[in-house]
Amino acid sequence: MIENSLIDITMIDQLWLIPLGFAAGLLGSMIGLGGGIIVVPVLTFLGFPPTVAASNSLFAALSNATASTISYSKQKRIEYSLGLKLGLLSIPGTILGAIISTDIAPDIFKILFGFVLIASAVYIFLRKKIETKEKTISKQMIVFAIGASFFAGVISSFFGIGGGIIFVPLMVVGMGMVMKKAAPTSQMILLFASLSGVIVHSLLGHPDFLQAGLLSIGSFIGGLVGARLSIDIKERYLQILVSVVILITSVKLFFDSFSVNLF
Known about the structure:
Layout: H1 2-13, H2 17-31, H3 36-45, H4 50-74, H5 80-100, H6 106-126, H7 139-159, H8 164-174, H9 179-203, H10 209-229, H11 235-262
Helix pairs in contact: 2-3, 2-4, 2-10, 3-4, 3-11, 4-7, 4-9, 4-10, 5-7, 5-9, 6-11, 7-8, 7-9, 8-9
């Protein structure tokens, strides 16, 4: 009885992870990046070890990608053939990313993730400006897509953010896909990247399954709502808000890392 009571108290203490997962899933679904750019910084600021933050976040990314893919498939906005190919190509990278994340120092992780956040903010802010006309995919682009998919897999599993920051610009700029299909297709790709990353992280003993489960619940609901809202929402104000928050977060990560080393 005492042990069960302790488990109940622990779960109650962790319930705040559900709304965190919801917020991350909502934004991640609408912009196609996955919700890790929200979850990982929050967990990191709260003192979670890098591997725990990344692996817990990856569970939420998988849940978010599942919900978003279900919704987007009903809206017929997914390019299934391309999504399947890029998703499978990302799997070797996710395995490598999970393995190399095992011994990463917290300060190094914060610095690296800060740069990832800056890149994410630039992408979000410029998202509407990178629309291009449909183009024929060259052999060189196919080779580049293979390499980019592997790298996206590494980024996805190492940081727990999903690989949307690479896949969406790749599909829009490199392949001429419209944004209305690129973001949904990115969510399908993240199904493969996040699932393989979750499996490897779990085998390595990285995640806290209670925390990951609570994040996943919120992220799944957020993914459903975000996919629905993405049809009609005016993105510009959302882009500016999210970009500013992400940039502030990246500055905080840099400051935390360098202040530890200086003092």
